[in-house]
Predict the structure of Acyl-CoA thioesterase 7.
Amino acid sequence: MSENILTGAKKVTNKATLWYVPLSLKNVNKVVEVPPIQYARKEQEDEGKKRYEEQKLDRLETKQRNGDVILPVINPDRQTKEPHTVGYSQSSLIHLVGPSDCTLLGFVHGGVTMKLMDEVAGIVAARHCKTNIVTASVDAINFHEKIKKGCVITVSGRMTFTSNKSMEIEVFVDADPFVDEPRERYRAVSAFFTYVSLSKEGKPLPVPQLLTETEDEKRRFEEGKGRYLQTKAKRQAQMQQQAAQQ
């Protein structure tokens, strides 16, 4: 919630559902059972089960995409690339995981990872639009594997879809545990971020159309369009439901 301290008016600014799993204190690789909770109403339990099944399907879809690779782009020659293409705005960030990034058990805080992902997605969006940009929504950040202290993580983002007023950026986090373990790099986190373009006055601006060049880029664009239409329909249904309740 945000509050205008002059007028006292309050409004909802952010809303999300976060999913956690409990790990054993003796073995952090072991997931333990969640104690049941008492619901005030049967409807609460039914709504929770529905959200659980929806996010479960989202995670299955994301796992199927974990073979995808975004090659790290640290110093690209953007002058050789066509503006508004995937390659032109594609961006990467490399970060060494230190003690301040981690929990007491030595694993990265989820919020640290989300911040880095949002930064990379914002860079991609800004390079595509060349305007002010803001995060509109995040579609299910999935933490596939834990990231330990001492890992080098590569956060990579690419534009997948644009509508008239918004753009979708896919972000991967790959971890390289080069200090303690002789393990290969692995996919740790993935998500889709939606951004909008704003004028200096904070008003929405049209988003330049994404130019797809390869078959994979065209496929990802169509998949992004499907997610966009699905999200749009869901929001319209929620608005209609809220209007009916008033």
Q: What stands out?
A: The two ends are 20 Å apart (CA to CA). The first helix runs from residue 42 to 64. The first strand starts at residue 2 and ends at 3.
